[in-house]
Amino acid sequence: MKVTAVDPFALALDLRSGALQPYTSRTQRHLSDMRGAFRDGAALEDLVRGGDPLVYEVLQYDLPEETGQLICCTTVLYPGTVGAEYYMTKGHYHLVRETAEIYLGLSGQGYLLLMTEDGRSWAEPLGPGTVAYVPPAWAHRSVNVGEEPLVFFAVYPGQAGHDYGTIERTGFAQRVLRGPQGPVLA
Ligand SMILES: [Fe+2]
Questions:
Q1: pLDDT in tens, 166-185
Q2: pTM of the predicted model, to two decimals?
Q3: How far is the CA of 181 from the centre of ligand 1 (A)?
Q4: Residue from 132, 112, 26, 111 nearest 74 by CA
Q5: Going from the N-terminus, what domains does the chain have, and what CATH number goes with each?
Q6: How far is the CA of 9 from the centre of ligand 1 (A)?
């Protein structure tokens, strides 16, 4: 196996804000990037017309996307709702299904939703100190049910890749909605 030589390095992670220094890429997703993800499409379009809020951003230290490397990133998912549905990430499978991921919750309160292509679904609470394991073949999406940003750190194999298209076609098995007594899994 041939792996690109990379020198050792260390990054600084702020354990509350999730700020990663240095990072080499920053991906921002606004509501207009998430058409089709939320149940209430009309509410989404109203919010897009009203200023198209930032839903989440991912700070990453990029490495060669190949077997042998581990890539880490921080996600900051802002609080908010579209209709009754809490802000969430797009969610993805890994292109290479045989790859896992570790999440470490840093601040805020939410859920990690997971599902498989053969119909299993799962929800794990995600908050400060949560270490969640995303096994191979499980799609994953996070949802912020709190009033503060939901921040988590993640590590995944370099070759994993991201498959957003399957989720765009199939949606996710579960949604998290604001109910009178708090979040409801639907
Ligand atoms: Fe992932």
A1: 999 999 999 999 999 999 99
A2: 0.96
A3: 31
A4: 26
A5: 13-181 (2.60.120.10)
A6: 22
